[in-house]
Amino acid sequence: MHPVIFVGAFVFLGCLFALQGWLTMRMWSYRIGMAILFEAWVVSYLLWGVLCWLLWWWLGERIQHARLPWIITRLLPLSILTGVVQEMIWVWCFPNLPLNRPHMSYWRRLGSNVNDDVLNNLVICWCVFGLFRAIGYYRKYREQEVAASQLEAQLANAQISALRMQLNPHFLFNTMNSISSLMRTDVTAADNMLEQLGSLLRITLKRGDAQLIPLRDEMEFIELYLAMQDQRFGSRVRQTVSIDSELHDALVPAMILQPIVENAYAHGLSKLDHDGLLAIEGRREGRRVRISVMNTGVGLRNGRAGGESSGQGLGLANVKARLGLHFGSDHEFSIRQVEKDKVQVAMVFPFRLSDHQEEQITRFGAE
Q: Which one of 8, 201, 307, 329 has the fewest beta carbons within 10 angstroms of its own beta carbon?
């Protein structure tokens, strides 16, 4: 409803009517100058554009919400008055029109024009009023759509936050249990693990409520977590991490890997006395990111990861739920047995980069 666009649309409509009138007269062998014909039509619709925009500026909101009594008692007289005002200005601008009639006074020409064009003027006015009403309905629809999308986004964020809150105490309790068990066998390792847990908590606090973080920050967290597990399992497990350098700034859901790694230790590597392997890989596949965690252990049982019913379901279900909330259907999540004693958890999601460089969290949470 910008005035230039609104009035310009009316002027363009006037040009189309002028062209149509000129072509019709040419077909019927009437000779009339193109300039005067276009001038008359363009000025007529220019006046309509200006008057209707003034009505929008004055009564736009009222017209959009008007009820039938107000429409009949206010809009109907106003539409007649608007048509008369338009004719008054147009007749004053063109004292020599119409060309096929003898010279008449201003008031006689005004009366003749109003009588001839009263129906056309009412049609134009009510078409414009209909446009105003349609704009009102469209605005209301868009407001409802925006409100619905905001509520949907707020709900998704609330669900993601709830899942994050579910993970934090789960991770904390499991880690504290590990420290408690080490206190009976290796006090030094338990003390180191407790310090590392404090560093992990500092990292978590630094992130705040951020839902998507650069992969490098997620890997800082995971490396610290792996160091804690190394205190517990020692030489029983060999850890390897391989991440493409171009993925360091790729956005991933925060704390997306820790539940998978924890699951690998709890339901696979903890069952081994020696030669355990945990391999984390990150690769870019076109416009997508693929991250996998592979571990040795007892393999899958009956098509499900071993121990799924006793806690494993929480971590993996949480990961799957958060991937769905962040990426919708544009992601993949799989658990499969690659060899008899090797299980791989893989996830694939869109490759996205952070809009701004985030402060990097120091390795192992060192200050």
A: 329
In 3D space, the residue among 261, 151, 174, 164 whose CA is nearest the CA of residue 212 turns out to be 164
CA 159 to chain centre: 17
Q: How much is the mean pLDDT over the chain? A: 80
Are 70 and 14 part of one and the same domain? Answer: yes
The pLDDT-based confidence of 168 (bands split at 50, 70, 90) is low
**16-20, 49-53, 103-107, 321-325: which range is least confident on average?**
103-107
- Number of separate domains in the chain: 2
CB 262 within 8 A of CB 229: no
Q: Is the pTM of this model over 0.70?
A: no
* Exposed/middle/buried for residue 200 (C-beta within 10 Å: 0-12, 13-18, 19+): buried
Task: Provide the residue range defining the domain that includes 131.
Answer: 3-148
- What tokens does 293 get? 């965690």
Does 297 score more than 80 pLDDT?
yes
CB of 214 within 8 A of CB of 222? no
Residue 269 is part of a domain; what is its CATH number?
3.30.565.10
Q: How far apart are CA 122 and CA 256, in angstroms?
A: 65
- Answer whether residue 102 is part of any domain: yes
Rounded to whole angstroms, the Cα distance separating 198 from 179 reads 12
Buried b / exposed e along 116-140 (16+ C-beta atoms within 10 A): ebeeebeebbeebbeebeeebeeee
Task: Enter the tokens of residue 324.
Answer: 């769905």
196 plus 244 within the same structural domain: yes
Each residue of 214-237: pLDDT tens digit? 999 889 888 988 888 887 787 789
* Residue 314 forms part of a structural domain: yes
55 alpha carbon, distance to own chain's centre: 36
